[in-house]
Amino acid sequence: MGGRTIWGILNSYCPCSVTVSRTGRTAVTAGFPPRETDEPEAVSTLAETLGIGRRLDQESFSPRDAYHAINRIGELLESSEDPAQFASAVELLYTRIAELLPGLEQGEPLPSEWRPDETGLGDVDLLCRVGQGYELVPASEAYYVRSRSSRDRYAKLGVPILALFKPEAASFGSYCGARDLRTAVRREPAYEDCPPLPLSMGNADVDQAWLETLLAALLLRLRTNRQSASLVDQDRSATRTFYEQLTFVENLDLRISLADGSWDENRPPEPQAYHLERDGDRIVRVLVDRTLDRGALVDALTGAYTERLDIPQYYEAVNTLVDYALGEPEPGTTLENRLRTVGSDVPSGQVEATRKELFAEERDEPDMEEEPEPVAPEPYMADDSEEDDRSEHEPAERTVSTETSGTAHSAQVPAIDSVTSIGDRQIARTSTQIQKPIYTSGF
């Protein structure tokens, strides 16, 4: 190491935002736009420092490389009196290593050669956030989260949380033997119900149209940076689901504890701005406390939306739009102007058009006239047979169907004076009608 200190090693690469790409080039950022530089000496020094080969690419990155890199970072941090000062630098290094690890789908088991008991990664020291400070903790005792909002939510539990607060933490933590804090905690919400929209919250009136307009603008903002049509479709579907699951409540509290009772089992519940209620791994409801002040409500809506869609990288962009919209009874024009300032080429009226498209099903009304109920078909049926028959065959919620049903519509029901008698299926013929019997299915 040539006597280099941890500050000299880590600070020279990370706070100046020096990263090594998979092609061996080094991207340097120091308050200026990123630029590509060829610095083989810097690449070589970094690789040597981490105890791995010079070529940093996913195909050749082995379990041995991973162990030496992560373990070396822990050793360097151990020699420091205050590891917290390197938190940003270490997070960048952990992110880079996570990108080099083999891809891992959710729920997929680790390859046998990559299991922590085989690689030794379960025993390495990881930099973790514990409460408001940082400590080195064995990987097998650490937990990981996928965003900074999750880190803040669980901070008071006092558990060691891996100092990587990004989606990459799931892969990095799994390979190191850390545990997913999301599945390890028990969340018990308590709240008071409130009426449906419209509601007064954050010193503003919020109704259904306002909420739909905001979500339409957020969707347009996401489309600005999405390069894949599949991601655009995913955002659209997730935004619609968020709308359907969003529930405003009052005085939301949340009791958080580890399911095994090993940490702070008896901690009292704490006020919570929002909460994603789950059934296993599936989100079933999004709760937001409407009694918050304006600033906290903006943050709650932002956090709920970005966490529900799993887009923490868009937190600031979403937060800005929510802030601009809250307090505007009809925020469409304001949001369009804001979208244009960040590079979204939206014409006038685009937010409203997107709102109508996104929530078209909410606006649809059944195009059906009220139909007269047919006369009971048989004289021997009980008086309540009509009601029973209707409850058996008609759904609770009426929907428009394009299929032909067996129920007689108003256009098919003959005039009452043309029926010979109740129970006679044959319609009386007049002199002007065709002399062929006519039958209906309802009489």
TrEMBL record:
Q: Where is the composition biased (Acidic residues)?
A: 362-373
**Origin: domain of life:** Archaea
Q: Which key words are in the record?
A: Plasmid
State the residue spans of region: Disordered: 334-353, 359-418
Organism encoding this protein: Halapricum desulfuricans
This chain belongs to the protein called: ABC-type Na efflux pump, permease component
Listed Polar residues bias regions: 399-410
